[in-house]
Structures are given as structure tokens and as C-alpha cells.
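Re: that chain you flagged

S.,

Sorry for the slow reply, it's been a week of failed gels. I finally had a moment to sit down with the sequence you sent. For the record, here it is as I used it:
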Amino acid sequence: MTFNVRVPADSGDKSWERRRDVAARVLTSRQPDVVGFQEMVLQQRDDLLASTKDYAAFGLGREKDKGGESCTVFYLKQRWDLDQGQTGTFWYSDTPEEPGSTHWGNKWVRICTWARLIDKETGRGFYIYNSHLDFSEDFHLRAGALLQQRMAQRTHMNEPVIVMGDFNSSPNGKGLAWMLDKERPLALEDAWGLAHPGEDGFSFHNFSGKGKARIDYLLCSKGAFSVSRAEVIYDHEGDVWPSDHFPVWAELHFR
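Prediction finished late last night. Pasting the C-alpha cells below so you have them in one place:
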């Protein structure tokens, strides 16, 4: 599941205090194995971990002091082990190891949090890369190149990857097309597109409940997984939505 949880910066029905329990029920009702959040701050991480109990988390903030918004990842701790030597965060910039760095014209700091997770029962592993990208196509192309470079450096090259997040890009964007280029050495495919060919899958709704754009994605190594279903989650309680984005969920199976 990818879930831009919306930073707690609003009041009324949009406030985190009102949204918190609705967001927690999205997790408890579906029990996704892995959730990649965007815009998550420490308060939200602590609140959702306390509400759900079944998850462990990794990730840090995007700012220079490693605070602020994060791309934290939750995983079901009874099923998955985190490979402690294969986890980290990098910054989408010319100096990706420098916290808070920006060089590509983006106003906001942008990051990717990644890790290797291992199935406790089978020993099979995969890598997850969870990102919140900026808005320009130039940024998307640079970010895609850096992401491909980082994926090519992973220790267990035989294991597949799942790339998720808020890409701030339409399905027709050049950056997304670059990442989905079948000629890339590390080719990716779109889980939603595999399950729902030609359907919009709008994920951003700005608290209106009406999808306005598709900008949240779940991508995976080409041919490594079968996708049995994918869903845009419209859960809400009255006028309270868990976020200004709909979470996007997919069921993937190792081939």
C-alpha cells in the first residue's frame, strides 16, 4: 500500500486529530504487509503504530536534522524481518547522502526510504523504495536515474523490487514513462495498470472525495510478481477522510 497521509497542517475535519482513527482503520481493516507513507511526521508515525500494534517501522525525516516529513515504511512484524544492513534514506539531489540537500530546482526536500525485507517463513526477500517526488518532469527524470542507480547497487540483485510513492506525475508524464521503459536494465511495471488496464485510478482528491488526478503509484520488477488485484481505497467516515490522497493498495505474489 502507498499512502500519502497528509502532514498535520489543517483544522476541522481535515485535522490529524479527526483523521487519525480513520487512517488507522484503513490499516487494521486490510492488514497490508507493507505500507509506504509520504508526508508522515513523527506524531503520525507514533499514533498509527500505537493504534495498529501489528507493525514495525523504519524511516527518518527529510530535513537537514532528519526531522520533518518522512517516507516512513510500516511492515507486518510477524511476517517480515528487516535486513538491518540493507536499509536507509537518500535525498534526491546531487549529494544523495547529504540530509536536507536540494539541487534540482525543487522547493521542497525530496527523499527515498528503502530497505530489504525477508519473509520469515520462506526466507525470500525483496527491496522496497518509497518516495515522494517533486513536480517538474526534469526532476522526475533525474530522480528516476538516481533511483535506477541505487537499485543497481543493491546487494541481492536476484531479488525483486517494489517502488511506491507519491510521484506528483500523471501516468503520461515523461518521468514515469522513463521508469516504466521496458528497455531499462531494471524494468518496472505498474501494478494498477496490470490489474486495471486503461482505468484512471485517480488517487488525489484534496479532501473532496472526488478523484482529481492519479499521482500515487505501486511499481514492481517486471515479471517478478503476479498482481491479483489492486484498489483505490475510498474509506471515510462522514465528511472525514483519512487524507487528501486515497491510499492505493495492491496484492502481489512472488512468481
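What I noticed first: The first strand starts at residue 2 and ends at 4.

Talk soon,
D.
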